[in-house]
Write a structure and sequence with these properties.
mainly alpha, rod-shaped
């Protein structure tokens, strides 16, 4: 075998080896890439969990008060005709306004002595009901906690979107194989196809230029 032929074979073998090496490196680099994304996802999950606990904690008192307001409306509407106060929100605003005045200390106190309805739902005196209404009326701190919780929920939504994007970027085994195959194909086209095309064009031009 001529030395020129051996050199051609050796050169082509090196090109072929380079392609295999490039494909192998690309395939192996996917693992640290996926690991990096998975680490970011774990960090986001921790943030989402912590912010979720914080949001729930902020809403604990708020939710408790709302539940008590709804309960009071339910038992009262089942017993009495509340007329225009047909929702728990309307009824509580009305009741809260009454608690700020003397209604509970005068008119309602008389009802407590004549009717056993209020004791049956847990209020032994008009004053105990008044304390219940005042303690379960939302204050500025409750509204502020609600606002903070809503902001946290918005942030949690954004973090979930970021997590979903990262999860979509993780390459499965099939995607890894497909990506590596495309890299190898491009490498073959560049190192063989394009190179042969350039050599062919040069040879053709040189041939045409000969006399």
């Amino acid at each position: 075998m001529k030395l020129t032929t051996k050199k051609i074979i050796a050169r082509e073998f090196l090109y072929f080896s380079s392609i295999c090496f490039i494909g192998l490196i690309c395939f192996m680099l996917i693992y640290p890439y996926n690991s990096y994304l998975e680490k970011k996802i774990r960090e986001l999950n921790i943030q989402i969990t912590n912010k979720g606990f914080e949001a729930d904690s902020l809403l604990k008192v708020y939710k408790s008060k709302i539940q008590n307001q709804e309960w009071y409306f339910k038992v009262m509407s089942a017993e009495f005709d509340l007329k225009e106060y047909d929702t728990w929100q309307k009824w509580w605003v009305h009741t809260s306004d009454l608690a700020k005045g003397d209604y509970f200390n005068s008119t309602l106190e008389v009802l407590f002595t004549k009717d056993d309805f209020y004791p049956s739902i847990g209020f032994s005196t008009a004053d105990s009901l008044k304390r219940f209404v005042i303690s379960n009326t939302l204050n500025n701190e409750d509204i502020e906690s609600l606002t903070k919780s809503e902001n946290l929920q918005t942030k949690i939504g954004e973090l979930n979107n970021d997590k979903n994007e990262l999860e979509s970027d993780i390459l499965s085994h099939n995607q890894q194989v497909d990506f590596t195959g495309k890299v190898i194909l491009i490498s073959v086209l560049l190192l063989f196809g394009v190179r042969y095309l350039i050599h062919g064009i040069k040879w053709s031009l040189q041939t045409l230029s000969q006399k």
